[in-house]
Design a protein that fits this description.
- There is one protein chain.
- 27% of the residues lie in helices and 21% in strands.
- By secondary structure, the protein is an alpha/beta fold.
- Strand 2 and strand 3 (54-55) form a beta hairpin.
- The termini are far apart.
- Bound molecules: guanosine-5'-triphosphate and magnesium ion.
- Guanosine-5'-triphosphate (GTP) binds at residues 67-73, 84-85, 88, 90-91, 116-118, 172-173, 175-176, 202-204.
- It is found in: Membrane.
- GO terms for molecular function: G protein activity; GTP binding; metal ion binding.
- One of its GO terms (cellular component) is membrane.
- It catalyses: GTP + H2O = GDP + phosphate + H(+).
Length: 252
């Protein structure tokens, strides 16, 4: 995936995704309209993604958070199973990648939007919030400022995103034991305060990366298929059960 992208404008579709490209840049990745506004394409008639994979449901997931917290690396880890080590290339504008997951026998396509954390791209990012079905809000456990800024991000999300957006808080770089300045408990406390599911992740080691996306997809699928006969899907409970805890030796 190119990490140098320039924003070209606002996404024009308000519904979930169907038949998008596997990756693209802003303003261009506006897929077709087969999907209904709640994310259901049609379970009995699977659609075909451009990568040749069939899917039943499609949703947009957006990665947000300060520059350098690891949004692009998290996406690359999830999509390709690799870690982008080396020099940091800050995302310009917005970019996306698709991935189809199998959730309880249902094929769920996630169109994952990787936003630029830098302040100067904020107005571009704002334009995409309203189309997002889920938001993964990241901070960096080795960067206190990125943690302190979470409240401001939540205010922004409240202002621009859909009211019922699925939101998760992720403390990334949990592998960086020695550089850690934000304890897991602090992340948990903040998340609890705002009623948001929380987990620590590492794009480097892969810790909880699949889980973060799968949990969001499960929640979206549950809501979309209105599985009312089943007990309500409890996102935080599911995460707690599945989560691998990072070993954090050094608190702040
Ligand atoms: N140790 C460690 N380093 C990470 C991890 N995730 C990302 N990094 C490093 O952090 C730096 C920033 O990562 P990016 O993914 O480019 O950050 P970003 O949030 O996309 O930044 P912007 O595009 O500017 O918003 C890079 O040097 C990565 O190698 C992680 O889980 N662990
Ligand atoms: Mg980036």
């Amino acid at each position: 995936m190119s990490r140098k992208k320039t924003a070209k404008g606002k996404s024009s579709n308000s519904g979930p995704t169907a038949k998008g490209k596997d990756s693209g840049k802003s303003g261009k990745g506006t897929p077709g309209t087969e999907a209904l506004s709640n994310g259901v394409v049609h379970p009995s008639r699977p659609s075909l993604s451009n990568s040749g994979e069939f899917y039943d449901l499609a949703f947009k997931v957006m990665l947000v958070g300060d520059s350098g917290v690891g949004k692009t690396c998290l996406l690359v880890r999830f999509k390709d199973g690799a870690f982008l080590a080396g020099s940091f290339i800050s995302t310009v504008g917005i970019d996306f990648r698709n991935k189809v997951l199998s959730i309880d026998g249902v094929k769920v396509k996630l169109q994952i939007w990787d936003t630029a954390g830098q302040e100067r791209f904020r107005s571009v990012t704002h334009a995409y919030y309203r189309d997002a079905h889920a938001l993964l809000l990241l901070y960096d456990v080795t960067n206190k400022t990125s943690f302190d800024n979470i409240q401001a991000w939540l205010t922004e999300i409240h202002e621009y995103a859909q009211q019922d957006v699925v939101l998760m808080l992720l403390g990334n770089k949990a592998d960086s034991t020695h550089q850690r300045v934000v304890r897991r408990e602090e992340g948990e406390k903040l998340a609890k305060e705002f009623g948001v599911p929380f987990m620590e992740t590492s794009a480097k080691s892969g810790l909880n990366v699949d889980l973060a996306f799968t949990a969001a997809a499960k929640e979206l699928k549950h809501r979309s298929l209105k599985e009312l006969s089943e007990p309500k899907f409890q996102l935080q409970e599911y995460v707690n059960k599945e989560m691998t805890k990072a070993t954090s030796c050094c608190g702040s």
